[in-house]
Amino acid sequence: MIAPLTHDDPYALGGHRLVARLGSGGMGTVYLARSATGRTAALKTMHAHIAADPAVRARFRLEADAARVIGPVHGARVFDADPLAEVPWLATEYVLGPPLDEAVRLAGPLPERAVRALGALLCAALGQLHASDVVHRDLKPSNVMVTADGPKVIDFGIARALGDDRLTRTGTAAGTPAFMSPEQATGQEHTPAGDIFALAGVLVFAATGHGPFGSGGHADLMYRVRHADPDLIGVPPGLRPVLARCLDKDPAGRPATGDLAALLHPGPGGFADHLPEPLLAEITRRAGAVWSIPPRRLPAPPEHGVPATVPSDSPRPHAPTAGTKGSGPSRRRLLTLGAAAGLAAAGAGAGVWARFGRPDTTAAQPPAAAPTGGPARDLLWQEPVSYADPLIPPAPLLLDGLLLVGEYGVKGLDPATGAAKWADPSVYFMRRTTTDGTKIYSADHALDENEPLRIAAVDTATGKLQAPFGTLKDLQAILYGTQLLCAAPDAVYLVGGRGPHLRDGFLKDQKWFLLKVDSRSGGKLWEVPLPARPDRSPHLHFLSARAVGGHLVLVQQSADREPRLVVHDALTGRALWDRPLQSPQPVLNRAHLAVDDRHVYPSAGELIALDLADGRPAWRFAGRTPTARFGPPAVKDGVVYAVEENRGLVALDAANGTPRWTEGPRTVAAEDLGVPPAVGISTVYAYSGASAALVAADLRTGAPSRPVGAARARFFADPAARRLIAVGDAYVAAYPLA
Questions:
Q1: Is residue 689, in this structure, part of any structural domain at all?
Q2: d(CA 210, CA 178)
Q3: 0.85 cut: is pTM over it?
Q4: Average of pLDDT values for 676-689?
Q5: Distance (Å, rounded) from C-alpha 67 to C-alpha 388?
Q6: Does 185 lie in the same domain as 78?
Q7: Which of 61, 271, 521, 595 could bridge across to 83 with cysteines, CB 3.0–4.6 Å?
Q8: 625-663 as b/e, with b when 16 or more CB fall inside 10 Å?
């Protein structure tokens, strides 16, 4: 139930403005919040006095990592988190649907086909966790959200890695008694088989409205879980033997997630096709209402202590009765339209990256639809991936025959077909992954404040981390601002930090360094101190980085300064020059770097070439008007390409800025200046909002070519696979490249 903020709730956390309360308890509070880009999020916090306990704080970090492991398809996508803050917080996707317990109260027990669809998708969710050696340990109806596309598993507060008993003492039961496994109830090791037992209890509840062991006090419930037969009265006959097997007291007698998914398969149709009409209507209502919730705050209570109140922010849901007229298809069309509208509102600002829809893993898959905003005629393939609300522009890493995409749950894709070569949820952070064009490197992440920062290569065949080649014992792997910036054939460049003072359960007085590490020996080649930042600053030090010849080119950002273009001597680490990137363009636009062996071409509103050696202007291109603005440039084979506002594409000689050709004039809106052109084999591409497509021009002459119908997103060219790769926050897609 959405409630107003209290008078003493913070106004913002981690760059998110708080809008309302979604719930509060003894551990913390969950808020409805919006990011600076307009994205709606559920922001979970931990009470400060509880966070002083290092064990509780460690559990909060585990919760954030487990949420990342399950990924955005089966769980709520993680946008950002700061487990080291004085008030730890975790920002995730705001799921557009009710929890399963509310859904059953609203619509009654679900029909068998809905229970089967629910169970098959929950098997996929648990399988994702178990593949990463993580168990949920508290699966129950209130932790399963029902959306139009399928269930999402949330609340990983007591999830942990298999075999890890540091946070749970032997002989101590943790979980919810009504949905606990017998081994969990006696404090024994909870394995994936324990999650299967809990899943069966959830499905019994979905089918009947009650759990398999009734209700009552904790002691009674735990006794029944260990010794009594489950109550399967009301479970459809076709499901009884399957669920009875899952509720076997012996873990060895329970099926694995893959086998159970096959036993539960609901038949053809998407998830929404199996849901009852009242539940569909409630999902639609929530999807349409999410953006209309106004910020409300209770006034401070008067001095005599009588609490002040204001009316609730949202009306109670009114469920359609069983006798409501209307055909199934029309209701489902209403659901689709309402959910799409809600997602469009929830993603405003970041919506240029988003698409609606995700695969239904319970049925055979049709060809992928085009991302929202573009016709399907040119789409070659599409794959769901997870990107957070970007602190840096998502930049896939392209190797010979491998496209590395995603921020949480990194995937290696075949750029020609989109087929997954591997998916490794143990490589979490895209900003901690880089490539030199032939090898992939990853900086390790650890939960222990005392763990050193390690750098390892990633096996390109499997996606698995290899043994670390570099262990930086004086740097801490846990620190939020760690970045793996870029790589050259012989070295990796990164940002690492030290937080020597652990007080009140979180790190203070962090010190940060820019480093170069030999990729063969793992030895530190040089280290340069970086400007100090406030503790727990949400900013990264660098928005982008390129190693070109003897230069390291960086777009640097600290907590209290505008981005700056900084160039270091790659051999010694010495700073050669820096200059501010002052521009009316958003910060993310300025993160783009176009560099060749002579110049750097910054993204700062004007089109200018700066000498790599000393930062002096080599040339500046004047637009059609003195106030003309340019989007981020791209450079290839001695030619600089950029989009000029209300003119179109321009191509300039990289040596002296002489125009080779110009497009247009055509209408170019300010929002079309957000990304650089994509330079293909014989064609250069730029997005046009007016035509909702990529305009195309001949590289040599600027003559127009056939536009490519595509979504508004970030594009880059892969000439080897003859593909244009488009990246959104929830997908990567490919279009034909000329």
A1: no
A2: 10
A3: no
A4: 91
A5: 13
A6: no
A7: 61
A8: eeebbbbbbbbbeebbbbbbbbbbbbbbebeebeebbbb
- To the nearest 10 degrees (0 to 180), the angle between helices 192-208 and 257-264 is 20
Instruction: Please give the DSSP secondary-structure letter assigned to residue 89.
Output: E
325 and 201, same structural domain? Answer: yes
Range with the poorest average pLDDT among 94-98, 155-159, 555-559, 681-685: 155-159
Could you give the CA distance from residue 729 to residue 388 in angstroms, rounded to a whole number? 7
Q: What is the residue-wise DSSP string for 8-23?
A: TS-SEETTEEEEEEEE
Q: Are residues 66 and 187 in the same domain?
A: no
Neighbouring CB atoms inside 10 A of 129's CB total 25
Domain count, the chain: 2
Instruction: Among 66, 93, 120, identify where a domain stops.
Output: 93
Same-domain status, 128 and 105 = yes
Instruction: Flag the least confident range among 266-275, 454-463, 725-734.
Output: 725-734
Alpha carbons 15 and 92: distance in angstroms, whole number: 13
62 closest CA partner among 130, 160, 174, 131: 160
Q: Which residue matches tokens 């997908």?
A: 731
Tell me how far apart the alpha carbons of residues 596 and 639 are, in angstroms, rounded to a whole number. 10
Does 181 share its domain with 313? Answer: yes
Q: Is residue 722 situated within a structural domain?
A: no
- Residue range 168-208, pLDDT digits in tens: 433 334 557 888 888 888 878 788 899 999 999 999 999 99
Nearest Cα to 361, choosing from 285, 255, 265? 265
Question: Which DSSP category does 78 fall into?
Answer: E
Distance CA 59, CA 158 (A): 7
86 and 140 belong to one structural domain:
no
Which CATH number covers residue 106?
1.10.510.10
Residue 84 falls within a domain, yes or no? yes
Q: Which domain holds residue 192?
A: 100-366
H runs (alpha helix) in 265-396:
277-289, 328-346
By the 10 Å C-beta count (0-12 exposed, 13-18 middle, 19+ buried), 559 is classed as middle
β-sheet bridge partners, residue 679:
684
Pair 104, 85 in one domain: no
Q: Which amino acid is it at 174?
A: A
CATH number assigned to the domain comprising residue 58: 3.30.200.20
Would you call 313 helix, strand, or coil by DSSP? coil
Using CA atoms, how far apart are residues 354 and 714, in angstroms rounded to an integer? 11
**Which residue from 576, 580, 671 is spatially nearest to 631, judged by alpha carbons?**
671
Q: CA quadruple 214, 220, 222, 227: dihedral positive or negative? A: negative
Helix (H/G/I), strand (E/B), else coil: 473: strand
Measured CA angle at 408 (ends 404, 410), to 5 deg: 25
Q: Please identify, among 93, 114, 146, the residue that sits at the C-terminal boundary of a domain.
A: 93
Separation of alpha carbons 452 and 414, rounded Å:
34
**356: amino acid identity, one letter:** F
Question: Does residue 521 belong to any structural domain of this protein?
Answer: no
Does 193 lie in the same domain as 112? yes
CA distance 274 to 711: 30
